[in-house]
Specification:
The protein contains six helices and no strands. It is about 70% helix and about 0% strand. It has one domain (about 30-80, about 95-154): Up-down Bundle (Four Helix Bundle (Hemerythrin (Met), subunit A)), CATH 1.20.120.10. The termini are far apart.
Length: about 150
């Protein structure tokens, strides 16, 4: 019985490792699934960044905890959409420009820049310093806009 449990544990651990190591393309059954995934992530990220923007622009009251929560969501979500720019996902219901796949290194650099800005925004929000949040919000929003201007059809 002990040997059977050990074997099952090894099998389950090995299987989990294989699944975790699968390439990003294997995470999506169809290119449309990847498109929907990245659009959903971007929508959530944009919503929470917009909430911080309203505070930074004085259109909403500053609440340190709420701003910190929103910044943390932005930071977390910033890591997710780029694995969904897989082969075949340039066609379909997408606003992604073909340049993404032609300039993948530049696109990934823009993604990395945005992710770095999101980390800075999270740190500024944790500091509770509204002036710092305003500055970093501006650079974070700019990193999003720069990428969208170059790689997204309106």
């Amino acid at each position: 019985m002990h040997r059977l449990l050990s074997s099952l544990t090894i099998f389950a651990t090995t299987l989990a490792g294989i699944v975790a190591a699968s390439p990003a393309a294997a995470q999506f059954a169809r290119p449309d699934d990847a498109i929907k995934y990245r659009q959903s992530v971007m929508t959530v990220m944009n919503t929470h960044l917009g909430r911080i923007g309203a505070v930074a622009q004085g259109k909403a009251a500053y609440d340190a905890k709420t701003t910190m929560d929103n910044a943390n969501i932005v930071m977390t979500m910033s890591r997710l959409p780029f694995a969904a720019f897989v082969e075949g996902s340039h066609k379909g219901d997408t606003n992604a420009k073909p340049e993404i796949w032609k300039e993948m290194d530049k696109f990934q650099a823009a993604a990395k820049n945005m992710q770095e800005q999101a980390v800075k925004l999270d740190a500024a929000a944790k500091s509770g310093n509204l002036d710092a949040i305003k500055v970093v919000f501006g650079s974070t929003a700019k990193s999003c806009k720069d990428c969208h201007d170059k790689y997204q059809n309106e």
